[in-house]
Write a structure and sequence with these properties.
The chain has 394 residues and is α+β, with helices and mostly antiparallel strands. Helices cover 34% and strands 28% of the residues.
Length: 394
């Protein structure tokens, strides 16, 4: 296999994972990141077993497990206390909840060790073809880099290189992270949620610790219609805390250290996929290729799987064939999870009164059946169908 000159636009989860995997194959890797000091955006996430397999492939799994919190179960209750969600992981293959900063640090260190060149403060705004399907990258500063044999667009939902036009979802959320309180009876190995129909949702996710800090932490999230996110900064924080604890009294110890609205970060979500996530010399991965609600907890895992599938394709077939091979390998996994997200999200985040009734009185009882329970486990684990078709996934 002839080494390629590869540029990766974006030092997010998918971009850094791709840098590690492709550098290990002997390619010359340059990562261009728009921030002068690269940093993650967001709060907590869950790395599912399929994502952990990719981290293990780049020798970052052990470091991630040392920082993260193993998650054995996802539990959801109505405001009345009625259980409406109970999904368990396989005993030997739990999820791993982490702060995004912890995952970023693990991947960043792995990328540096892999020998990739990192150009911080380099905001890519355009990719243009050069001779023989090679690509040039144009930066906001006016500088031009290249040519590259391949440009990997890992620029996320706001990537200027992606042609994806996704649909804005009507609900978003506010996220924050707090020390795990000593005076709580909530388990430190489960994602817990509390609902009022589908219009309100609160959640607690144990996320382990940050690098260099042994304090156990939790991610706190609160669902909001997007029109209410606009004025979040002017919200009376005490009034919001009263509203949140009225929905879920057990939330109170987690809110003690939240004193200002800027301790909670607003997040908006979109839904959509590229039918063809590549063109000559350019390939899109992660949120640059497909976006969905975080309800199934698959966003970071999809980016890791994309990076793995791309590296597998480049390691087995010539470049001209590798990009369509990557797209085929990921197509059905992405489509199936996009469909599931579109179906399930309104049951947990919407103004509908009928969909939560279906969730509570039909789907919840069915989830106790062994076959359905196994399907739900596979769904959250990320392997409901093979995550990378035609590949011996690790």
């Amino acid at each position: 296999m002839q080494p390629l000159d590869i540029a990766i636009a974006g030092a997010g989860i998918g971009g850094l994972a791709a840098a590690c995997l492709l550098a290990a194959q002997g390619h010359r890797i340059t990562v261009l990141e728009r921030f002068a000091t690269p940093r993650p955006l967001g709060s907590g996430l869950v790395i599912q077993p399929v994502g952990l397999a990719v981290l293990d492939r780049i020798c970052a799994g052990q470091a991630a497990r040392q920082l993260g919190a193993p998650i054995q179960r996802m539990l959801g209750h109505q405001q009345t206390g009625r259980e409406v969600l109970n999904v368990t992981y396989r005993t030997k293959h739990p999820g791993l909840a982490m702060h995004r900063a912890a995952l970023f640090d693990v991947l960043w260190q792995a990328t540096l060790k892999a020998g990739a060149a990192i150009l911080a403060g380099s905001a890519v705004v355009q990719s243009s073809p050069a001779q023989a399907d090679r690509r040039m990258l144009h930066l906001a500063s006016g500088a031009v880099h290249g040519p590259y044999d391949l440009v990997v667009d890992a620029g996320g939902a706001s990537s200027p290189l992606s042609p994806l036009r996704s649909r804005a979802l009507p609900f978003g959320a506010i996220w924050g992270h707090v020390p795990w309180p000593a005076d709580t009876a909530l388990p430190a190995n489960a994602l817990r949620q509390r609902y009022h129909h589908a219009a309100r949702m609160a959640g607690i996710l144990p996320i382990g610790r940050l690098p260099g800090d042994d304090t156990p932490r939790a991610a706190v999230f609160w669902s909001l219609p997007v029109d209410q996110l606009e004025g979040w900064g002017a919200q009376d924080i005490t009034a919001w805390k009263d509203q949140a604890t009225a929905l879920w009294p057990e939330l109170a110890p987690f809110l003690h250290t939240i004193e200002r609205t800027d301790q909670m970060t607003p997040a908006r979500y979109t839904h959509g996929s590229l039918r063809r996530p590549w063109s000559p010399g350019l390939v899109h991965i992660g949120d640059a290729a497909h976006r969905a609600s975080p309800q199934l907890g698959q966003g970071a895992n999809m980016a890791l799987l994309d990076a793995f599938a791309l590296a597998e394709a480049l390691g087995n077939v010539p470049l001209a064939d590798a990009l369509p091979a990557y797209a085929r390998a990921r197509r059905w996994h992405v489509r199936s999870y996009q469909t599931m997200s579109r179906l399930f999200t309104p049951m947990y985040q919407s103004h509908s009164r009928g969909l939560p009734m279906i969730r509570d009185h039909l789907l919840s009882p069915l989830s106790g059946w062994p076959l359905v329970r196994g399907l739900l486990t596979a769904l959250v684990s990320g392997d409901m169908i093979p995550p990378v078709a035609s590949s011996r996934f690790p």
